[in-house]
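Kindly go through the entry underneath: sequence plus fold tokens. Please state briefly how this chain folds according to its tokens.
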Amino acid sequence: MTPDLITLPNGVRLVVDPMPGLQSAAIGVFVRAGTIDETRAENGAAHLLEHMAFKGTSRRTARQIAEEIEAVGGYMNAGTGYTRTGYYARVLSGDIALGFDILGDILGDPLFDPVELEKEQEVVIQEIGEAADQLDDAVMELLQALSFGDHPLGRPILGTVESVEAQTPASLRAFMRRTYAARDMVIAVSGGVEPQAVERLAREMFAAVNGAPPPPRAPARYQGGRRHDARDIEQTHFALAFPGAAVTAGDYFATRVFAEALGGGMSSRIFQSVREERGLAYAVHSFADAYEDAGVIGVYAGTDAANAAEAITLIRRDIEALATAPTSREIDRSKAMLKSTMLMALENPSNRIETAVGQLYAHGRLISPVELAARLDAVTVDDVKKAAAKALGGAASLAVVGPGAFEAFEAALDGR
């Protein structure tokens, strides 16, 4: 079935996506508010606000929120990213009304109790410490900072210890008033649902949402940079970044195919050259991140310090090979992998609501799987060559966490 897109009287958009045969549903409420919308003093506020939404309302304590959803076998969660925040409920089809009621309550009437805030600040500070100890997370956060510099996209989603401690109930309310606007809110429901009942619930539970559109976001530009966090640890973790494609750019799909061919699977270039042929790393993969105004193509690997420079050399060689001589066979294989990943994900209602919301925020409309597959099919070998050449033509970023000679790593990245 084709999802329905409904705009409520206050401007909130509602996606209703029935999946006949399912006995459960995924409900998501998304706001176009994330790290990119924070000032430096607010860094981490979007994420902390998401935590505080579950810490009590006028009708429910934090414990009552947890007990009510779990009493029907459901669960709730939330997630903050660079550009949006989502609040989720997963319930059986007969409990959709409860899911809507709790989500409407925590978003419409959060208390931001000072005592609860103090406790949750400590929880987030522990989360920051845990992320710092997860070395793959640490190197990716460093790469993000190098790629976007002083722009909000270069700041950590969790914030810093200092910025999190500085938040108050008033600062969180101010951020919420500025960014949680009706026009930028999307409610998405998928699974065993009845569309008319869902629309009625959305109108009831979110009728009071309003707020002026938030101020425009500062345009982001990939800039590149290099840094070494020389920790005394067993492995050296490194991440590279190159200019990619914005989410609405004409070369977005070619860039995704390029990233898949480079390091998206076991048959990809760098998996074969770095791991299978030379045994230099256990984990090595590529990624493509796309934002409204900018994008990044990147590679992550964890290896012994003595092998890092050679691994970087091989990765640069593989990018150069894709810029000059990609094969039709590997491009077709990459497109097939991307299509299968997309279609398999759409068999899960939680993934379906995430996909729909991403499309609405990026393109202002829902895009069918048929259209997405056609766009992937239209990518040619020459398109991939251009995407690879674009990556090589920009400033390369290099983030390293762990031991090793950074000068040798830089030389390998520069082809020296």
